[in-house]
Design brief:
This protein is mainly α. The protein has 5 helices and 3 strands; from the N terminus they run βααββααα.
């Protein structure tokens, strides 16, 4: 059974990333496409990894953290990877909640300043 493979250009289009991004992910060992001459081809494994990379970035994880977590599967297996994921996700959730609290505070302060300035302008 033949596995569907995507070319470099198809991979960029499928995941809406730039060629530079895809090359960088390969350079830092997040992806390891098959090579045939100068061409790169991405199979199901690389597509699945790309989904995980993009989710990780969306959730605020560093590329190095994502790389280490993905490598864990190869070296220590699924159970260890899942345990590490739970720990990483818990830590990231705490970080995002802290950032949200800081943003909520900044928004409230900005709104108050805007309203005070608007009120002062209306009195002029």
């Amino acid at each position: 059974m033949s596995e569907t493979r995507l070319s470099f250009k198809e991979m960029c289009a499928k995941f809406d990333v730039t060629p530079r991004t895809l090359r960088y992910y390969e350079y830092i060992e997040l992806l390891q496409p098959e090579r045939e001459g100068r061409s790169r081809f991405y199979g199901a494994r690389e597509c699945a990894r790309m989904v995980l990379i993009l989710r990780g970035r969306k959730w605020g994880f560093s590329l190095e953290g994502i790389r280490q977590w993905l490598q864990m599967y190869d070296h220590e297996g699924t159970e260890m990877q899942m345990r590490q994921w739970v720990e990483n996700a818990t830590n990231q959730l705490a970080e995002l909640e802290d950032q949200r609290a800081q943003l909520d505070e900044a928004i409230a302060e900005l709104r108050k300043s805007r309203d005070e300035t608007s009120e002062a302008l209306s009195k002029l």
